[in-house]
Design brief:
Distance between the termini: 26 Å
CATH topology of one domain: Rossmann fold
Number of helices: 18
Strand order of the largest sheet: 2-1-4-5-6-7
Number of strands: 15
Low-confidence stretches: none
Shape: elongated
CATH class of one domain: Alpha Beta
Length: 550
């Protein structure tokens, strides 16, 4: 529901603010005063394209801002999916810069026009007498029937069946496409797999083998240098171990003279222990170094095989080779069990297909039951709205299932006696279509939560009792749904919960379009003018009071 509308610097509007009621809001005014301009502004909040030519002042930006109460619209998932901050009082803003750049915001977060169109369509429905495409649309007609039938749960069940069918269909077709390739490549895959399995690769072995080979290839040099080190540390007459022992003896003689000397002695002892430990470890490593021709040859061949496999498969590590081996193993398993896998995939597809058709048939039956009641109710409403010879029927064809079911629906309509009903888009004139569309929305309003309904002079071509009936229907709709109607009929203006008057202000150098809410006295005056002209008579004023009293 729209709770507040601000329009700045748009077309003839310098600054306009509106606080529509949650019921029926009527907007009247002179021709060209700016009523249609408001529709253009609302269209921008619904994602329509913007043009810098609409700026009232070409040096300032245009701002259209709508505040909506969206508590009952179940939009939290939409906000979360699109990373938007949810608020029951949501603000949608559109800005157009003097350079023509357009920006859109939802609760101060920038959004794309696609997101704006999506949420705008859920919050507002602008209906005019020229709106012909939607009613002739297959999806809209199905939506009408499903809404009337209360098909929400069965549609969810069908949607799940459709999803499962598509998943199984794609899986079977994908496996079928792969089957020929897999069979053709089976021998090569098996050859590659055998080669890698024979290699018996271990993920971390390459670095260890490379290190081992380096040691074996330089064994003589390594042993020689280890022995030199051991001589210097422990074996020669003037070795490091003996020298440290001498130093320790001298420090020991000094340690009683000062705490600092005792500390130095302790540190030296630590060095002596570490030196002995290192010497023992070097001796241990030296004993391990042996030149083994057989082991050296084995390591060389092992590494050569690893390098060859890496080059062949264009990778740089044993880990990647193991991943390729696993992939080849999986392909080999698929190929080996291809017939069984295809049979299973086909079986799953047939099961999903049966469930889909069962669900589609159930959905079709619920729709079929509503054809006659919908047509009867629409015919009655159309007769009340001045189309006494209206006839409607629903033409249904069974088609291959789609995401919306297996029904191709065409609502056929005739406004005249003796004329066979034909598809809506082919036969409805502007006025007839407008009343038919309004009747449909009147019916849907009783069945489901609808967005704010904006009606643009759909009362063209009606008068008298029909106008009273149209106003009564609008008032009934507004008990549960916010309605904003632009009208030129006093019978409808009198039904409004709030009455807004649009007028031009020519007092300054540039014309400005303004709007104001009328009080009770002003409403009587305005409705009397709609009845009797600019200077209404006493009778026109009495008629206006009578209409308001109704």
């Amino acid at each position: 529901m729209l709770t507040h509308l601000t329009i700045k610097n748009y077309a003839l509007i310098r600054h306009l603010e509106l606080d529509p009621s949650n019921a029926l809001n009527v907007i009247t005014g002179e021709t060209g005063a700016g009523k249609s301009i408001m529709l253009g502004a609302l269209g921008l909040l619904m994602g329509n394209r913007a043009d810098s030519k609409v700026l009232w002042d070409e040096n300032e930006k245009c701002i259209i801002e709508g505040t909506y109460n969206i508590k009952g619209y179940k939009l939290k998932t939409f906000f979360k999916t699109n990373d938007l901050d949810y608020d029951d009082q949501t603000v949608i803003r559109r800005e157009i810069s003097p350079g023509g750049k357009s920006r859109a915001f939802i609760n101060d977060t920038p959004v794309t026009l696609d997101i704006l169109k999506h949420i705008g369509g859920m919050l507002m429905d602008i209906h005019s007498q020229h709106e012909t495409l939607q009613l002739g649309n297959q999806s809209f007609q199905l939506h009408l029937i499903d809404t009337f039938a209360g098909n929400e749960l069965i549609k969810e069940s069908y949607a799940e069946a459709w999803k499962k069918y598509q998943e199984n269909k794609n899986a079977f077709e994908s496996l079928s496409r792969e089957a020929a390739t897999l069979r053709a490549d089976a021998d090569y895959v098996k050859f590659q797999l055998d080669e890698l399995q024979k290699a018996a690769l271990v993920e971390d072995e390459q670095s260890g083998l490379e290190s081992e080979l380096r040691v074996m290839e330089h064994a003589e040099e390594i042993k020689s240098r280890f022995n030199i080190v051991l001589d210097l540390m422990t074996r020669s007459e003037l070795n490091a171990r003996n020298l440290i022992g001498d130093v320790k003896h001298e420090l020991h003689q000094l340690s009683n003279y000062a705490p600092a000397y005792e500390t130095l002695l302790k540190r030296l002892e630590s060095v002596r222990i570490e030196l002995n430990d290192v010497a023992d470890e070097i001796e241990n490593e030296e004993s391990k170094v042996e030149f083994d021709p057989e082991r050296t040859e084995f390591v060389k061949e092992r590494l050569s095989n690893i390098y060859r496999l890496q080059k062949k498969h264009r990778v740089n590590s044993v880990k990647e080779l193991i991943e390729i081996e696993n992939s080849l193993h999986q392909k080999n398993n698929v190929t080996s069990n291809l017939d069984e896998l295809l049979a299973l995939a086909e079986k799953n597809l047939k099961m999903a297909e049966k469930k889909l058709f069962d669900s589609a048939n159930a959905l079709s039956e619920t729709r079929k039951k509503e054809f006659e009641p919908i047509c009867k109710q629409l015919v009655k409403l159309l007769k009340d709205l001045g189309i006494p010879e209206a006839t409607l029927q629903v033409d249904k064809q069974v088609i291959q299932p789609t995401s919306s079911g297996q029904d191709k629906i065409d609502i056929l309509f005739s406004a005249n006696k003796g004329i066979a009903p034909r598809p809506l888009a082919q036969v409805a004139s502007g006025g007839e279509f407008s009343r038919l569309m309004f009747s449909i929305k009147f019916m849907m309003a009783a069945k489901t939560a609808m967005p704010t309904l904006v009606l643009d002079e759909i009362d063209n071509g009606v008068s008298g009792e029909i106008a009273l009936q149209l106003g009564s229907m609008m008032q009934n709709m507004s008990r549960n749904h916010q309605v904003i109607t632009i009208s030129h009929l006093p019978q409808i203006a009198a039904r409004g919960d709030r009455h807004y008057y649009v007028f031009k202000d020519n007092s300054s150098e540039k014309t400005i379009s303004n709007i104001r809410m009328l009080n009770e006295t002003e409403r009587v005056e305005e409705i009397a003018k709609m009845i009797g002209g600019a200077k209404p008579s006493r009778i026109a004023l009495e008629n206006a009071q009578e209409l308001l009293a109704r």
